């Protein structure tokens, strides 16, 4: 750390002996040793903390990369399933086309057609609201004119 050799230590010891005297030199050396130990422990603790933070940041980056890959895979599977569920619709819709109706809207349309078809074969329903009654087709108009 400081790269102090034996000769430098001897000079520091002699100067300390002259300045402090033989009675206070051992206590001063012990105090200096304690302070140096505390400083070393603090520095090593900071180094460990910095290393842990760097490792945590690397792990976060790897986790984010894996999350992005997983999200892209999920989107790809979702597109594949949607394309299998709707074989008559092309896999990629063109921007000038209207968006495909939702499943709920398609179900409502199918129920409305079924009601119309059922009402047409049994005759007009008297209890149906006027806006739900189907409009007569050309065949119905021809049959009613005879």
Strand content: under 5%
Biggest sheet overview: none
Shape category:
rod-shaped
Overall mean pLDDT: 79
Calculate the terminal CA-CA distance, rounded to whole Å.
114 Å
Could you give the order of the helices and strands?
HHHH
Radius of gyration in whole Å, from Cα?
A: 44 Å
The total count of strands amounts to 0
Specify the structural class: mainly alpha
The poorly predicted ranges are 123-128
Helix content: over 70%
By DSSP (H or I, 4+ residues per run), the number of helices equals 4
Question: Secondary-structure blueprint of this entry?
Answer:
Layout: H1 6-20, H2 25-85, H3 103-122, H4 138-145
Distinctive features:
single chain, 4 helices, 146 residues, mainly alpha
Question: Mind explaining what this structure looks like?
Answer:
- This protein is mainly alpha-helical and 146 residues long.
- Helices cover 71% and strands 0% of the residues.
- The chain has helices at residues 6-20, 25-85, 103-122, 138-145.
- The longest helix is centred in the middle third of the chain and has 61 residues, at 25-85.
- The radius of gyration is 44 Å and the shape is rod-shaped.
Structure summarized in a few sentences:
The protein is an all-alpha fold and 146 residues long.
């Amino acid at each position: 750390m400081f790269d102090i050799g034996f000769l430098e230590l001897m000079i520091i010891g002699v100067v300390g002996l002259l300045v402090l005297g033989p009675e206070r030199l051992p206590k001063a050396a012990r105090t200096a040793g304690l302070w140096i130990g505390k400083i070393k422990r603090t520095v090593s603790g900071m180094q460990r903390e910095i290393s842990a933070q760097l490792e945590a940041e690397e792990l976060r980056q790897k986790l984010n990369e894996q999350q992005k890959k997983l999200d892209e895979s999920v989107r790809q599977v979702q597109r594949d399933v949607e394309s299998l569920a709707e074989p008559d619709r092309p896999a990629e819709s063109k921007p000038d086309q209207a968006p495909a109706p939702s499943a709920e809207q398609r179900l409502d349309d199918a129920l409305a057609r079924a009601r119309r078809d059922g009402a047409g074969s049994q005759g007009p329903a008297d209890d149906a609201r006027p806006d739900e009654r189907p409009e007569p087709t050309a065949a119905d108009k021809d049959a009613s004119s005879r």
